[in-house]
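Lab meeting, action items carried over

1. Structure of the two-component assembly. Owner: GW. Status: complete.
Input record:
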Amino acid sequence: MSRPDDSDGITYNFAYLDEQTKRTIRRAILKAIAIPGYQVPFAGREMPMPYGWGTGGVQVTASIIGPDDVLKVIDQGSDDTTNAVSIRKFFIKTAGVRTTMSTEQATIIQTRHRIPETALKPGQVLVYQVPIPEPLRFLEPRETETRKMHALEEYGLMHVKLYEDIARHGHISTTYAYPVRVDGRYLMDPSPTPKFDNPKMDHCPALQLFGAGREKRIYAIPPFTSVVSLDFEDHPFEPTRFDKPCGLCGAEGVFLDEVVLDDEGGRLYACSDTDYCERRRAAGHRGEMLADAPAFVAAPDNGERQ
Amino acid sequence: MNLDEDQPILEVDAVTRYYGERRGCEDVSFEVYPGEVIAVVGESGSGKSTLLNVLSTELEPTSGDVRFRLRDGRMWSLFEMSEAERRLLMRTDWGFVRQDPAQGLRMSVSAGANVGERLMAVGERHFGRLRAAATDWLTRVEIPGDRIDDAPRTFSGGMRQRLQIARNLVSSPRLVFMDEPTGGLDVSVQARLLDLLRGLVDELGLSAIIVTHDLAVARLLSHRILVMRDGHVIEAGLTDQVLDDPQAPYTQLLVASVLQV
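Predicted assembly:
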């Protein structure tokens, strides 16, 4: 299944990886789905991008994508930041698949941090790019030891970290990579997703796959699986809340980015999910700062929207 | 806990450990009864640490067996338990106080979290209760309550050692291993630590095995003493008896070489 690339005459296999590699990665993915939250080692390949840019996620996407798939790539919720644009272009070039910015139309969504605000549906796959897959690494640097701790369900150490948070800051101050227990068994790091999105992982209808390129680990949350954020009885888990609605589309209960507007303290809080925000504005919703916001914030280049 | 005081809590049965051709310890047998403190003394290289590491399952013996009485009264061979059971035992029924507190503590997390770790490991999920237990134990080992949120990095050597003791005793262990617990501390701090340990061991009815090269520590803390040389126990008995009237020539030498001030 290969297609020639138009521009420079190089022939890539469909979606860059060779078929044998895709098969080994698919086997790892199947194992990960069978054992929710368990980190499956896989023979990660060198990708034509540096570690930390999403090599794990790209390999997972490359292994599951087919010619009929519609791909959406987001970085911090946004469709048009560097990482998202370059990964989208990578798959346009090597697989020739259709891409989209619409969460609803996508069959595969590769993400760096966020889970889209639009609810995911059965049949969709969310692929996360993961920098550090091991949630216990903070307190236990030995890999042999953390594996043993997973095997024996010795997860007390994770609460030591949360205890430290409360002791130092008066509340659990971990706001991203907030540890969760998957299916009542494995401790998992949703890294580096904000804890705001943790509740969306619980019983999500879509399949969630996590790829860590540098550490060569794949893990998964099958659809409709319980995902519980760790906490203390007297300090329960609380997702991040924002006191304001989005300045551009007026949405409430969404994850907001802070945009510095000038050097006089001007701030705009706007949806981090650009697709969601634009859709709401197209439907006539108006935030209170929409008129004042600079053009590049309020109306980004929509050239790639399909 | 209603254990028969007449039954040993730990049985050490002909434990031998070789490192290749080299002997670590050979044919060591003894029993530890509830509430009893046993000192293992001898010069460096005599096999004390090898013995302690075998007893605490950090090393497998070449031959011989170590049996421990569980809370339900059954006597179990440590090396027939699964690793999961052994690890559970280590953080509930056992304690291990190391010579270097940096090995026994988590140096980068607060004193409170160090004390609370064992409780969290067995499922305590209430911050307030963890905090109360930590405060209680810090007081008991004479660490001021306002140091609860400080990392042990900022503690003096003596405080670190006392914190290590609190961290181990919080789970109410029945058997505590101590490897040179007063090593590296100056004499006045040693005296306070020994005083504290003696009080706690008495109060909690702990059994303990203390490895030390310091006969004064053995004298102060232990009921019985084992003298080791070249991997063998060459003399054993009540501490006062052995130290006041040593029978083996090596023990006589050992006792005679203590400086009298």
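2. GW to write a short summary for the group page. Key points so far: The radius of gyration of chain B is 18 Å. The mean pLDDT of chain B is 92.
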